Amino acid sequence: MTKWTMVGAAAALAASAVSAGAQVTKTVPGRMEKITVSVEAIDSGRRQVTVKKPDGTYEVLYVPAAVKKFDTLKVGDKITANYYENMVLRVAPPGSTPKDEASNAVTRAETGTAGTAAHQRTITATIAAIDMKVPSITFTGPNNWKYSTKVQDKDALSKVKVGDKVDITWTEAMVVSLE
């Protein structure tokens, strides 16, 4: 499974979620994207395929055992994936235990050439910096995770402070087909 995340959307919207007062949870509408990648390397023992994305970057995909045609893959083949992501932001109550959780799920292949995989990650991020001039916000989290982004809603940004905590849960799901 690729390491695609929607952290940018989380950071951009976290100020809105935090400042919402009575609204402590915010769901960011998901989006669907279809991409075609080319196979660059194959690790049969681990059922992993290194692919090159259209933007020239590389990712490692795990191919579920239910995908029967894995053994027919060759360098240069094309893989098409329909990718969906969703984000939920929740203000972490004061004194709550920080989160750093992940889970994976792989389901059946529908035709022997396609399979689905999902990944969900929840972390507790801390607002580390706010710059009202840009405007921007910086988050830090577990394992030295750090992310900064611009924020569109200056009013929402003015209602949060450095040190506030936000639980960020993002879910990714892919339907992968081997062509």
Question: In words, what does this structure look like?
Answer:
The chain has 179 residues and is mainly beta. The chain has a domain at 7-31 and 84-178. The protein has helices at residues 7-19, 154-157, and strands at residues 25-43, 48-52, 58-62, 78-91, 100-107, 114-131, 136-141, 145-150, 165-178. It is elongated and about 55 Å long. Residues 1-23 have low confidence and may be disordered.
Record keyword descriptors for this entry:
disordered N terminus; elongated; mainly beta; 179 residues; 2 helices
What's the total number of strands?
9
Question: Overall mean pLDDT score?
Answer: 75
Proportion of residues in extended strands? over 45%
Poorly predicted residue ranges: 1-23
SSE-based structural type: mainly beta
What's the shape?
A: elongated
Instruction: Please compute the radius of gyration using only Cα atoms.
Output: 19 Å
Helix percentage range: under 10%
Task: Provide a count of the helices.
Answer: 2
Amino- and carboxy-terminal Cα gap: 18 Å
Quick one: biggest sheet?
A: 9 strands, antiparallel
SSE ordering:
HEEEEEEEEHE
